[in-house]
Amino acid sequence: MSVAHQEAPKTSPGVYLALERQSSDKHEYFDGVILNMPGGSPEHDLIAGNLYVLLYNHVGDGPCTAFTSNMKVRTERAGLFSYPDLTIVCGEPRYHDSHRDVLTNPKVVFEVLSPSTADFDRGGKRIKYQSIKSLSDYLLVSQDVPRVEHWSRGSKGVWLVAAVEDIKGQVHVKALDCTLRLTDIYRRIKFGAPNR
Has residue 31 got a pLDDT over 60? Predict the structure, then answer.
């Protein structure tokens, strides 16, 4: 006789949020499973900081707002709660509830890839993000090589992807009328340094 495999019980979004708001560590939520977030490298923090400065300065006092990785984002069916490295909202931010710590209407999301999360960021997380009606752009920024993958919503909702792999290259985010140079994104990053 074989024993049936039983999955661990799923956690509801409400329970996840209650636990997360009391936790000193960050966790993401994916289809009922709570995921620990790994610590970031110095390169990860520098790249995320560079992106924030670039986009914060670009949006200025206009209709868009830049949020750091302290702000969570939720997909419309609440299958994903995550902490993107940078989130841009255009227009009035909409929040999940009165705590105002979970955005539901991101326009542009940036994730700086870590070795332990890159596959998830490109796969399951990307698919969840792309279900958000307000989202027009999803950018994945490598920390080990100069490479930016840019997913953009085209006509009829079809997502297109392009990759820039030249440190002298640039990425244009049409929704923000913004061109980002890889030399600015990777400012102070030394690729191939011995201590990496």
Answer: yes
Please name which of 162, 164, 161 lies closest in space to residue 147, comparing C-alpha atoms.
164
CA distance 88 to 141: 16
Token pair of 88, please? 């841009």
DSSP state of 131: T
pTM: 0.92
Residue 23: name the closest of 83, 95, 107, 109 by CA: 83
Q: Cα(83)–Cα(74) distance, rounded to whole angstroms?
A: 9
Angle at 55 (CA atoms; ends 72, 177), nearest 5 degrees:
115
Q: Which amino acid is at 10?
A: K
Could you give the C-alpha distances from 155 to 62, 74, 136, 171, 174, in angstroms and in order? 25, 24, 11, 19, 13
In angstroms, the CA 35 to CA 142 distance is 21
If 0-12 CB within 10 Å is exposed, 13-18 middle and 19+ buried, where does residue 69 land? Answer: buried
pLDDT tens-digit readout, 66-125: 999 999 999 988 799 999 999 999 999 999 999 999 999 999 999 999 888 899 999 999
Centre a 10 Å sphere on the Cβ of residue 177 and count the other Cβ atoms it contains: 10
- Which sign does the torsion angle of CA 60, 106, 74, 95 carry? positive
The first and second tokens of residue 191, run together, are 């690729």
